[in-house]
Design goal:
Radius of gyration: 25 Å
CATH topology of the largest domain: FAD/NAD(P)-binding domain
Largest sheet: 7 strands, mixed
Structural class: alpha/beta
Strand content: 15-25%
Length: 506
């Protein structure tokens, strides 16, 4: 492999992507020679694999890390990092164009898409140092670049080398789900991998899929200047989120001119002579045609289980990924799994938390369980939608008490011009224990951490009423929910007792 392979691994072939590849898949990398048995061999260099490797090595374990493509995984290369860079740029443009509601003028606001993408590539390359092969090697990890496959219950081959292990971790993540739609492959389409290689903004972008990735990139693209249409099979955006939260986002998308075709199936794609695409859709009994210059396919993810030799290792798996226990052990007692390959929570923060469980359980006889984790997540649209714990549907089934405060009632939200959204909490009616929460706000991802901490430490909702928040802030919405809960406990009987007491002490 030589330096020109950068244009194969990550496009476009510029100085920033060459710097990225030099860090996370160096062309001149020499795999070490295995020497004896490893305490832990990790397959996959994404979030879960990197945490497993560096954590175990930091505790003195002999560790090998194997990655066939790019260290850093989707998060660094094709997910969190590049997408949030573009989302921030798109938000800046949107805010500038919205100056009129603050008494300003936005007549001269424009965006150079090429420069925006260049900024993303520059920052991604800068961050890639943290996930580089050399950094991990310097920290004592034997880094192997190549395809890994189990050849027995205790051995893995990489190229022509065989690695023996006491424990192994499968952290091979997942990839974008394909679709069997007539004409789609011939027309060509983007995924979360290829969309960040664009150098020109599509004039007309159709996003197939109304989940988090699709919604984030749809809104960012629209704000940067594309005419965007979202096609989703479900009747709502973000079908796994609170319906009221999805409704707020749907309303915002409508205001921004994003066309929504929900409850709609894409049935075929035709390619025109000029290279543009025509999507044929079914909505109820109607046929709808949508023109596009680019198609972004975002219909879910599938686990990367192929080629790993899982049968030889005695590791069971199915279409959802590697099957693990609550302690993340596979059907082979020596092998564990972490991250998207085995979890329904396909988030970097979940992969990180699971990796820490694996280190404890695999190397130190720990008994940590995934079910004990409190895992928040956030969809980084504007407004953002963040969630932790049980959903509204689960709350109804469990007879939990649900309380809601509209963001428009908060002084800071009004001053910021960010009144679209709400905070909602589900509470155990007997003990006031917080079971779950949903927040729709411009910075919901930052604000949900307070609720995650309260749930992790088993604090009752009333504790938030006693927690002093700076004024004015949008995070005061949690205190408002705590006050609301305390007022519910002020029953007529207690009110009567208080009235008698106050009368007596006058």
């Amino acid at each position: 492999m030589n330096e020109s392979s950068a244009d194969v691994l990550v496009l476009p072939d510029d100085q920033y992507n060459r710097a990225l590849v030099k860090n996370v898949h160096p062309a001149n990398w020499q795999n070490p020679t295995p020497n004896g048995r490893y305490n832990m061999v990790v397959i996959g260099g994404g979030a879960a694999g990197l945490i497993c490797a560096i954590g175990a090595a930091g505790m003195g374990a002999k560790v090998a890390l194997i990655e066939r493509h790019l260290l850093g995984g989707d998060c660094l290369n094709f997910g969190c990092v590049p997408s949030k860079s573009l989302i921030r740029i798109a938000r800046a443009i949107h805010d500038a164009r919205s100056l009129d509601k603050f008494g300003g003028s936005a007549e001269s606001v424009s965006l150079d898409f090429g420069d925006a993408m260049k900024r993303m590539r520059r920052l991604r390359a800068q961050l890639s140092v943290n996930d580089s092969a050399q950094r991990f090697a310097d920290l004592g990890v034997d880094v192997f670049i190549g395809d890994a496959s189990f050849v027995s219950k205790t051995e893995i081959v990489v190229g022509d080398q065989k690695l023996s292990f006491a424990r192994a971790v499968i952290a091979t993540s997942a990839r974008a789900r394909a679709a069997s739609i007539p004409g789609l492959n011939e027309a060509g389409f983007l995924t979360n991998v290829t969309v960040f290689s664009l150098t020109e903004l599509p004039k007309r972008l159709v996003v197939v899929g109304a989940g988090p990735i699709g919604c984030e990139l749809a809104q960012a693209s629209s704000r940067m200047g594309s005419e965007v249409t979202i096609i989703g099979r479900e009747p709502d955006l973000l079908p796994r989120e609170d319906p009221d939260a999805a409704a707020v986002l749907s309303d915002q998308f409508g205001k921004e001119g994003i066309q929504l075709l929900l409850g709609t199936d894409l049935t075929a794609v035709k390619t025109k002579d000029d290279g543009s695409k025509l999507l044929l859709c079914k909505q109820g009994g109607n046929t709808i045609e949508v023109a596009a210059d680019e198609i972004l396919l975002s219909i879910g993810r599938v686990p990367n289980t192929e080629g790993l030799g899982l049968e030889q290792a005695g590791v069971k798996y199915d279409r959802r990924g590697v099957i693990v226990s609550d302690k993340l052990r596979t059907s082979n007692r020596r092998i564990y799994a972490a991250g998207d390959i085995c979890s329904r929570y396909q988030f970097t923060q979940a992969a990180d938390a699971m990796a820490r469980i694996v280190i404890q359980n695999a190397l130190f006889f720990g008994r940590k369980k995934v079910s004990s984790l409190v895992i928040p997540w956030c969809t980084y649209t504007d407004p953002e939608i963040a969630h932790v714990g049980i959903t509204s549907t689960e709350a109804q089934r469990s007879c939990a008490i649900t309380q809601t405060v509209q963001l428009a009632s908060m002084d800071r939200a009004l001053l910021d011009g960010e009144t679209a959204g709400f905070a909602r909490v589900h509470v155990d009616p007997k003990k006031g224990r917080i079971l779950g929460a949903t927040l729709v706000a411009t910075h919901a991802g930052e604000m949900i951490a307070e609720m995650s901490l309260a749930m992790t430490t088993n604090q009752p909702l009333g504790t938030l009423a006693r927690t002093i928040h700076p004024y004015p802030t949008q995070s005061e919405v949690w205190k408002r929910l705590g006050d609301q809960w305390n007022r519910k406990r002020f029953t007529p009987f207690i009110a009567k007792l208080f009235k008698r007491w106050l009368a007596w002490i006058r």
